Amino acid sequence: MGEFELIRRYFQPMAARLATPCLVLGPGDDCAIQRVPAGNDLVFSVDTLVEGVHFPEAYPSRILAWRALAAAASDLAAMGAHPVCFTLAMTLPEADEDWLSGFAEGLADAAANFGLALAGGDTTRGPLVLTIQVHGTVPEGRGLLRSGAEADDLVCVSGCLGDAGAALEYLTVSNPEDDVQSVLQRYHQPQPRLELGHQLIDVASSAIDISDGLKADLGHILAASGVGATIRAADIPVSSPLARLKGQQAVSYALHSGDDYELCVTLSPENWGRLPPNIRNQLTVIGVVEREPGLRIQGWQGAAGSNGFDHFRSMS
Amino acid sequence: MGEFELIRRYFQPMAARLATPCLVLGPGDDCAIQRVPAGNDLVFSVDTLVEGVHFPEAYPSRILAWRALAAAASDLAAMGAHPVCFTLAMTLPEADEDWLSGFAEGLADAAANFGLALAGGDTTRGPLVLTIQVHGTVPEGRGLLRSGAEADDLVCVSGCLGDAGAALEYLTVSNPEDDVQSVLQRYHQPQPRLELGHQLIDVASSAIDISDGLKADLGHILAASGVGATIRAADIPVSSPLARLKGQQAVSYALHSGDDYELCVTLSPENWGRLPPNIRNQLTVIGVVEREPGLRIQGWQGAAGSNGFDHFRSMS
Asked: Where does Mg(2+) 3 bind (chains A, B) (predicted)?
């Protein structure tokens, strides 16, 4: 199967099915064309996933496609952006039809779930590497940045943290119990917080998605904002399966492993007080922003040194 | 060197140097933010280059960076788009400082030449694969498409074709003669036709950049437009070094090998007649669009079957 045939068979039907009026021209020409509504900015992010680095070898293609698009879409959530479309650049070792049809199915599922149209792409023979760029829009000048956190703001996270990190320990378990299944699901099928992110525009003072672990990602907010924070280990929300792990294992997952794609945001106590219950219920306050730089974690005696996922260090 | 350090050292200074007001937020946050001026559409294209497929192993990183950005920018030229910014997703086997500084230099050079700001990216350890997405703008609804060619339109190409294809035969020549040097230059440092493409808005009825060879790329225009064409082999412009090759070798390069990144456009005889000399001088009429589907090449007895570069077929 040639490149053009592969695109024709697997990706053009998907592009047609996911079309949106904002995508004036989809795949098939030299470029795609997107119309950005007046009063809005274009928001975009690119993410690469490499076999053996970001996902295990022989990982099911259907799940891989979902995870790849979820990871990219999560960056839109962190900006409060409305999702619009994405491009997919893919190198793969062979045009295996089973693999490709699974991949296309997972991608179409995820794209429909996240409201992202397929705008274009490139497919080449090579090692298995996926690069996805997602596009969204935000009202002009109102995208959520990492750099707006101020002293006395509350530090909040969405959902529960650490499940996806814990899942890595269970990936090879056959016939997993219900508990483990729910943890695995968080790894295989993450749900980017697109709606919540969008609702936090004009509310949060800063935001990031947790892809490298809370410690590293909150660290990015603090560095970008020129502030510090104290958080309480006991307040970090973890799922009930994780809560049953011994010692500080659950908190360690939450602090150091990514792939949950929850949001970490800061907001003023006033804005927290004004949040409608349906938004507040999705967030947990875990600490407070302070003038003094650095991240202090009360009730945490974990090993020093681990600081999130750094792609070059992790392989060296 | 970790991922963050690598970005800080090589790509952040470049991003700062190439900044443009349309890029509201560059690298360093979850997303980049681009403002698309009112009355304009966003135009974008993604291209992947794989070591050993699109460029030779141990290819100099400075030249690689230029070629990669030129190939991507050429798609903007083919739409008549004004260049704005790009993202770079890169997997590389090791953070070699010589390689990286050469790459960053070549990329900054090319970016400044083409008017593209660095908006963001992703770097990961893996096999050497580059994915570049370029962004441009066109006045709303006026992007040059492949699908507008009509019977009786003239078929034109810019510059000379085939040099980059011929260069592949000479890549390992040491101390090349002047002739060969000029041909190699076309391969190593292609110049996307950004200005010409922009000037052809509202003039050309269709356009494509020649990345896979004239035969394949003109074929894309004809298929997208539902028409055919007859071109004359003798009218295909080739450089003087290529003109000295035996038999139909030069025409064969022009028809079947890409990487020149010239434009192929169609336009009505009336529009051709009205073209200012400075634009007309950059184009050569090589044939005419016809109702009958298919591409006919007068004065060409070359081998059938070769039909441009298809990434999966080419490796099988």
From this structure: 30, 75, 209
Among B74, B109, B139, identify where a domain stops. B139
Residue ranges of chain A with per-residue pLDDT less than 70: 1-4, 303-316
Asked whether A173 and A235 are in contact (CB, 8 A), the reply is no
Nearest-neighbour CA in chain B from A247: distance (Å): 31
Residue from B233, B229, B236 nearest B295 by CA: B229
User: What is the pLDDT, as a whole number, of residue B55?
Assistant: 87
Specify whether the backbone of A72 is left (phi greater than 0), alpha (psi in -120 to 50) or beta: alpha
Q: Do A128 and A213 sit in the same domain of this protein?
A: no
Between chains, do B312 and A6 touch, taking CB under 8 Å as contact? yes
Is A315 inside any structural domain?
no
Average pLDDT over residues B20-47: 95
Considering only alpha carbons, which residue of chain B is nearest residue A312? B2
Residues B252 and B291 in one domain: yes
User: Which residues of chain A neighbour B224 with C-beta distances below 8 Å?
Assistant: 28-29
B26 and B79 fall within a common domain: yes
| Tokens 């690119």 found at | A46
Dihedral angle computed from the Cα positions of residues A16, A21, A23 and A26, in that order, rounded to the nearest 10 degrees: 30
Asked if B29 lies within 8 A of A147 by C-beta distance, the reply is yes
- pLDDT of res. B75: 97
Using the beta-carbon criterion (under 8 Å), do A125 and B32 form an inter-chain contact? Answer: no
Other CB atoms within a 10 A radius of the CB of residue A260 amount to 30
Is residue B308 scored above 60 in pLDDT?
Answer: no
The residue in chain A having the minimum alpha-carbon distance to the alpha carbon of residue B264 is A30
> Does residue B279 form part of some domain?
yes
Instruction: List the A40-50 sheet strands across, edge first.
Output: A117-125, A82-92, A129-139, A40-50, B32-34, B23-25
- Known binding residue B310? Answer is no
Instruction: Please check whether residues B77 and B183 belong to one and the same domain.
Output: no
For the ranges A59-63, A236-240, B87-91, B311-315, the lowest mean pLDDT is seen at: B311-315
Higher pLDDT, A3 or B56: B56
List the CATH number of the domain containing A63: 3.30.1330.10
B179 assigned to a ligand binding site: no
Summarised one tens digit per residue, pLDDT across range A286-299 is 999 999 999 999 99
Residues B128 and B181 reside in one and the same domain: no
A50 and B124 within 8 Å at the Cβ level: the answer is: yes
Is the domain of B35 the same as that of B104? yes
CATH number at residue A235: 3.90.650.10
Token duo for residue B113: 């030449």
Mean pLDDT of chain B: 91
Most A CBs within 10 Å: which of B5, B7, B30, as the mutation test of the A interface?
B30
Residue range of the domain that includes B282? 154-304
Interface confidence, given as ipTM, is 0.91
Cα of A76 to nearest chain B Cα, Å: 7
A43 and A135 housed in the same domain: yes
Q: How many domains does chain B have?
A: 2
